[in-house]
């Protein structure tokens, strides 16, 4: 397991947990970062990252991406 | 004239749908006080004139971003006759979240199941009739790129404007429902709020800690009673 911010280009994983306040947790859930959801890093950091989640590309700041814990998903 | 608002997630083909409905002719301005584009066009179908208002693309209707707030305030305060929710048929799970929020807002929703061709190509077999039954609103498959289903959509809009139905209720389970009812009862004492907003929606938003709705309630003479029901 690792924070989403630390994943590399093209890596795929599943959301294990989101650490944040109520507002951030809700916002991320609305963007598609719910537990168990498959995510794919399209462009990794340093800095903001681009992620594919539930069929949409979402850009996240580094700080926010550090709060999303992801487990590796070998395909 | 029927007032129709178009809403949908980003990238569902909303602009194309707007152009299909209005023939591409639009009056473009800004939302009052906001640097967000407002597009308004006209559509005449079977002798009925419709004003089409394009709302900003948004994933949800919380009070967080300007776009979301514009869309939400328009639906709550201007009460359009019909809200056309453009849904990406190839990405239903994500898109139906907004649909449920619109139903909770008690909007008169018509769902345009757009990109139906893409969904079909992906092998998705969507039971349109069942989806319509589950949501309690008309669902029309469309392909904005080829104008498939546009005439049917226009028919559905006019039909929906004629008979306004109460949208189905989304149940939250006994425990939460009890609190929602208590908060709603307190809200109902304030006639101004009752006239302007769906009371159940207000109660749910208060429980979510929605800042805009909290501000509204702050101004109510029944503020203390409402807040007490909340705690």
* Share of helix of chain A, binned: 10-25%
Write down the secondary-structure element order of chain A.
EEHEEEHE
> Structural class of the helices, strands and pairings of chain B?
alpha/beta
Inertia-based shape of chain B: globular
CATH topology name of chain A = SH3 type barrels
**Rg of chain A, alpha carbons:** 11 Å
Any overview of this molecule?
The complex is a heterodimer of chains A (75) and B (231). Chain A has 75 residues and is an alpha+beta fold. Chain A is 20% helix and 40% strand. Chain A has 2 helices and 6 strands; from the N terminus they run ββαβββαβ. Chain A has helices at residues 22-31, 62-66; strands at 2-3, 12-18, 38-43, 49-53, 56-60, 68-72. Chain A has a 6-stranded antiparallel sheet with strand order 1-6-2-3-4-5. In chain A, strand 4 and strand 5 form a beta hairpin. The radius of gyration of chain A is 11 Å and the shape is globular. In chain A, 25% of the residues are buried. The mean pLDDT of chain A is 90. Chain B is α/β, with parallel strands linked by helices and 231 residues long. Chain B has 2 domains: 2-162, 3-Layer(aba) Sandwich (Rossmann fold), CATH 3.40.50.300; 174-230, Helix Hairpins. In chain B, 47% of the residues lie in helices and 19% in strands. Chain B contains 11 helices and 7 strands. In chain B, strands 2-3-4-1-5-6-7 form a 7-stranded mixed sheet, with helices on both faces. In chain B, strand 2 (27-30) and strand 3 (37-45) form a beta hairpin. In chain B, helix 7 (174-187) packs across helix 9 (199-208). Chain B is globular, with a radius of gyration of 18 Å. The mean pLDDT of chain B is 92. The interface between A and B is medium-sized, with 10 and 15 residues.
